[in-house]
Design a protein that fits this description.
This protein is mainly alpha-helical. The protein contains six helices and two strands, in the order ααββαααα. Helix 3 packs across helix 5 and helix 4 packs across helix 6.
């Protein structure tokens, strides 16, 4: 008898309760970043993050997609390959930390930071500083290791 989760049922239930999945969910759940436009939900003993604003969700997705495109070489990820958990955390947390450094921002809220970049095209962002944040970000070590 299998004691595992039914991932397909979980996926359907997740889609049913979350209208706008948060692009930075992993970073938020690992507490390396923060956002005032998210809400935590619980499903099947798992934590989920949902976005409360469609425009902010779109900005975050576009920014994270650009981070993925720019970080593939630096993190040794081939195009079309899925992002391993640790490298996704580096992309999410490191990019926001790099953006904070690039903007010399006092506010560390994702929605606020990306809203401040709205006037700029994503191409015009200081990608070298953002990528330095991604490359140098070290995820926390698991307890007991």
């Amino acid at each position: 008898m299998s004691a595992g989760y039914n991932e397909e049922a979980y996926s359907h239930a997740r889609q049913a309760i979350i209208d706008l999945p948060c692009a930075f969910e992993r970073g938020l759940l690992s507490t390396c970043v923060q956002c005032h436009l998210t809400q935590k939900r619980l499903l099947a003993e798992r934590e989920l993050m949902t976005c409360l604003d469609a425009a902010a969700s779109q900005r975050c997705r576009a920014f994270l997609e650009a981070v993925h495109q720019n970080a593939r070489f630096a993190l040794h990820i081939e195009a079309g390959q899925p992002w391993p958990f640790g490298k996704e955390i580096r992309a999410q947390c490191g990019s926001i930390h790099g953006l904070i450094e690039a903007q010399d921002a006092a506010d560390t809220d994702i929605a606020t930071l990306l809203n401040n970049t709205e006037a700029q095209d994503l191409e015009g962002l200081p990608w070298p500083v953002i990528m330095r944040g991604v490359v140098h970000y070290e995820p926390r070590r698991r307890r007991g290791l």
